[in-house]
Design a protein that fits this description.
alpha/beta; 7 strands; about 45% helix
Length: about 210
């Protein structure tokens, strides 16, 4: 139980209210925090990363259940999912089992994938994302701008949130051409969000 959940808040810059949070895995060993950069790559070399992901999801569900029972206002929490889960057709069922075990309303969970995951196993990704949507669970793509995923494929998925990579944003806004491209991408995703909202009824943009 040395792996702990640290919650990074997501704040609305218009009113500075917390609208969500991301669950970050931190290894607290002998009183010191070990950087994820030291142990996550090791875990990702095997199925151990899948066990860690589900462990994190369970800890999040435990916390949400506790806060709900205490009458506290809760927000949606995003939990990272490794690409290794895509090889397992039971992944969606495993996610639902953990969430429902703690009787957490599905609206408070978001499953986060990285853009580099989109480069492979697209059918598996689509099956998972559609399954999440059908069960009222949000999904997001992190680090957009770092991979080489097919843009047409990406916008064809019922993804709820696109998170632009910080480096990609900084490089884009360094000149007018890049700024125009960034503005165009945001405009495209906003239009997609409106279409998907009408389809799913629970689409969210950030």
């Amino acid at each position: 139980k040395e792996f702990k959940v640290y919650y990074q808040p997501k704040v609305n810059l218009k009113n500075y209210m917390m609208t969500g949070a991301e669950a970050l895995c931190r290894w607290v060993h002998k009183g010191e925090i070990v950087s994820p950069g030291e142990f996550i790559p090791v875990y990702e070399k095997s199925q151990a990363i899948c066990k860690l992901d589900f462990y994190m999801l369970e800890q999040v569900c435990k916390d949400l259940r506790k806060w709900i029972d205490e009458g506290k206002k809760v927000v949606r929490i995003s939990v990272n999912l490794s690409r290794r889960h895509l090889r397992n057709q039971k992944t969606l069922g495993n996610i639902l089992e953990i969430i429902d075990r703690y009787n957490v309303p599905h609206e408070y969970i978001e499953i986060e994938l990285t853009e580099t995951t989109m480069d492979q196993n697209f059918d598996s990704i689509k099956r998972l994302v559609v399954g999440l949507r059908d069960n009222g669970i949000a999904s997001s793509v992190d680090d957009f701008g770092t991979g080489y995923s097919n843009f047409e494929r990406l916008i064809g998925l019922p993804i709820d949130i696109i998170k632009f990579d910080r480096g990609f944003v900084q490089n884009s806004i360094s000149n007018q051409k890049g700024l125009d491209i960034m503005t165009g991408l945001v405009d495209i995703f906003n239009k997609i969000s409106k279409v998907n909202f009408r389809k799913s009824g629970h689409f969210t943009t950030m």
